[in-house]
Write a structure and sequence with these properties.
With about 180 residues, the chain is α+β, with helices and mostly antiparallel strands. It has a single domain, classed as Immunoglobulin-like (Sandwich), CATH 2.60.40.420. It is built from four helices and eleven strands, in the order H-E-H-E-E-E-H-E-E-E-E-E-E-E-H. The chain has a five-stranded mixed beta sheet with strand order 2-8-7-4-5. It has a four-stranded mixed beta sheet with strand order 6-3-1-11, with no helix packed on it. Strand 9 and strand 10 form a beta hairpin. Helix 1 runs antiparallel to helix 4. The longest helix is centred in the C-terminal third of the chain and has 22 residues. It is elongated and about 70 Å long. The termini are close together. This is Phytocyanin domain-containing protein. One of its GO terms (cellular component) is plasma membrane. It comes from Phaseolus vulgaris (Kidney bean). InterPro entries: BlueCu_1_BS, Cupredoxin, Phytocyanin-like, Phytocyanin_dom. Pfam families: Cu_bind_like.
């Protein structure tokens, strides 16, 4: 009887869904810098609750999260949050539009701004983000093709969650044989 319970528990644990999250490196290998078309970078990507945006930048840039009005006018006078550490990981924890810009003079007007839409996480396994190369212009009028690797990387939630599930399942099997 104990073996049957342990086996049933093992099957149940392996069948439980696992939490997935994706880290999106904004601008791919170009990072958060001048001369990148962030509208093109974001197009074709589906951002979900549980994903993260990773901004990599040098000391000549910052990241401000702002509202739609600030995005439209390139103003960070009503900043929601400011990031200055050069490697900012921003959790996408709610659905809706999110807006970001570089508050340094002239940077937003030069294209250093990003608008995304965050969708609800699905209950099924998400598809891997598109691996098509993004286009990053070297100047606003001269695009060049960026053939870097895709910017989305698993966040590690899969490994941790799967590891815990396997640990619990293995413990149940061991306990089943002891009883």
């Amino acid at each position: 009887m104990a073996k049957a319970i342990a086996a049933s528990f093992l099957v149940l644990m392996l069948a439980l869904p696992t939490v997935f999250g994706v880290d999106y490196t904004v601008g791919d290998s170009s990072g958060w810098s001048s001369g990148v078309d962030y509208s093109t970078w974001a197009s074709g990507k589906t951002f979900k609750v549980g994903d993260n945006l990773v901004f990599n930048y040098d000391s000549s840039h910052e990241v401000d999260e702002i509202d739609e009005s600030g995005y439209s006018s390139c103003s960070s006078s009503n900043t929601i949050k400011n990031y200055k550490d050069g490697n900012s990981k921003i959790a996408l924890s709610t659905t809706g539009k999110r807006y970001f810009l570089c508050p340094r003079p002239g940077h937003c007007a030069g294209g250093m701004k990003l608008q995304i839409n965050v969708e609800a996480a699905s209950s099924t396994t998400p598809t891997t983000p598109s691996t098509t190369p993004s286009t990053t212009p070297s100047t606003p009028s001269t695009p060049s093709t960026n053939t870097t690797s895709p910017s989305a990387k698993p966040s590690g939630a899969v490994g941790v969650s799967s590891g815990i599930s396997l640990l619990v399942a293995a413990s149940a099997v061991v306990l089943g044989f002891m009883g």
